[in-house]
């Protein structure tokens, strides 16, 4: 339950000129501080007039999970970036994060675009995560892939990753011995981005680097600035060249840690390339996990608890963010 003394600090800026509405979140996980630093720097620059909001509205939440931040760990009572949807009217919050979700969802509802700033436990370079391609399916129907892809492209990370919810659903089926996941199980996989897409908007998660990387706060700040420029909400910097197409990867599988004695064969970093048949990890019973094909390790977590995601596996995607044709009206600048 949310403690009475807890509150969310939301910085809001409104232009007299109509335009897109962007919301930026930091600190969804308490041990990820780069987004907080990037947001606070942008607030200072807006207050001082060094950055001017030309149109639309901007809201920024520097610490989205105050309990987890106070504890200095990823979660308070649970992962805020799971089961991210408000409960039914009149429902009692069953944990701290449910109360925070109830506050954040209406904030996201009032915006068109979400930029969610994160960092990760293993070593590796910054990257962006995007949602599905345009589709009318049941898992995550979507029609704004062009706009979402353009936002990811303009964040200028060397890599962009797609395919999160598909792999989450596959992971559920794997844990259930092949049984199709139920709707509540799938909805637990919803994070801030999935919620934003379900409300008609679009969203990108930016993983700014390793938690303690001194460059990560700059990556977070530059991303906020880039999003504002792309949406026509701030003046562009003429010294910044057009973005280059990033390497695009697609998540294809997830491996859970099953036992405390499960161990990686070496210390992996996110986006380490591996070859088909290469050993990745050893189970407690001595069996070896090997790469099924050429690809890349993503989010290796040597601190994962048994029964949780241990690492993801990705391959090169055939998607091209720089050449997609828009399929819907864009809120970005002409």
Describe the structure using short key phrases:
11-stranded mixed sheet, 22% strand, alpha/beta, disordered C terminus, 8 helices
How is this structure best described in words?
With 334 residues, this protein is of the alpha/beta class. It has two domains: 235 residues, 3-Layer(aba) Sandwich (Aminopeptidase), CATH 3.40.630.10; 69 residues, Beta Barrel (OB fold (Dihydrolipoamide Acetyltransferase, E2P)), CATH 2.40.50. Helix content is 25%, strand content 22%. The protein has an eleven-stranded mixed β-sheet, sandwiched between helices. The C terminus is likely disordered.
What secondary-structure arrangement, pairings included, does this model have?
Layout (H helix, E strand, L loop, with lengths): L10 E4 L6 E5 L8 H15 L8 E5 L4 H6 L24 H14 L3 E8 L6 E4 L14 H10 L4 E4 L1 H12 L7 H6 L3 H7 L3 E9 L5 H15 L16 E11 L5 E2 L8 E2 L4 E4 L5 E3 L4 E4 L9 E9 L18
Helix pairs in contact: 1-8
Number of helices: 8
Q: How are strands sequenced across the largest beta sheet? A: 1-3-2-4-7-5-6-8-14-13-10
- Identify the overall geometry: globular
CATH superfamily label of the largest domain? Zn peptidases
Q: Which segments are poorly predicted (pLDDT under 50) over 5 or more consecutive residues?
A: 327-334
Q: Please report the first level of CATH classification, the CATH class of the largest domain.
A: Alpha Beta
Q: Report how far the terminal alpha carbons are from each other.
A: 45 Å
Measured by DSSP, the beta-strand proportion falls in 15-25%
Output the structural class. Answer: alpha/beta
Overall tally of domains? 2
The major pleated sheet works out as: 11 strands, mixed
Helix percentage: 25-40%
Series of secondary-structure elements, N-terminal to C-terminal? EEHEHHEEHEHHHEHEEEEEEE
Here the CATH topology of the largest domain equals Aminopeptidase
Number of strands: 14
Mean pLDDT: 91
């Amino acid at each position: 339950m949310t403690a009475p003394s807890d509150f969310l600090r939301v910085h809001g800026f409104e232009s007299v000129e109509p335009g897109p509405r962007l919301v930026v979140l930091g600190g969804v996980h308490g041990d990820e501080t780069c987004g907080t630093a990037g947001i606070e720097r942008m607030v200072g620059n807006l207050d001082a007039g060094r950055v001017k909001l030309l149109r639309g509205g901007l809201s920024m939440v520097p610490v989205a999970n105050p309990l987890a931040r106070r504890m200095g760990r990823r979660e308070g009572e649970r992962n805020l970036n799971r089961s991210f949807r408000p409960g039914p009217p009149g429902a009692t919050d069953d944990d701290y994060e449910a109360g925070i979700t109830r506050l954040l969802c209406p904030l996201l509802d009032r915006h068109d675009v979400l930029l969610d700033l994160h960092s990760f436990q293993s070593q590796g370079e910054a990257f962006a995560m995007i949602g599905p391609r345009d589709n009318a399916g049941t898992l995550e129907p979507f029609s704004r892939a062009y706009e979402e892809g353009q936002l990811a492209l303009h964040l200028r990370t060397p890599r962009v990753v797609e395919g999160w919810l598909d792999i989450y659903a596959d992971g559920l089926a794997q844990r259930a011995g092949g049984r199709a996941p139920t709707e509540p199980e799938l909805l637990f996989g919803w994070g801030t981005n999935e919620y934003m897409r379900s409300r008609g908007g679009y969203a990108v998660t930016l993983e700014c680097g390793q938690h303690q990387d001194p460059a990560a706060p700059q990556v977070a700040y530059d991303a906020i600035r880039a999003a504002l420029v792309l949406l026509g909400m701030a003046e562009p910097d003429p010294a910044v060249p057009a973005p280059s197409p990033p390497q695009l990867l697609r998540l294809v599988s997830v491996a859970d840690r099953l036992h405390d004695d499960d161990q990686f064969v070496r210390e992996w970093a996110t986006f380490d390339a591996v070859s088909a048949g290469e050993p990745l990890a050893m189970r407690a019973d001595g069996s070896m996990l090997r790469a099924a094909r050429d690809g890349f390790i993503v989010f290796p977590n040597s601190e994962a608890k048994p029964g949780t995601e241990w690492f993801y596996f990705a391959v090169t995607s055939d998607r091209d963010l720089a050449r997609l044709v828009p399929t819907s009206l864009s809120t970005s600048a002409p």
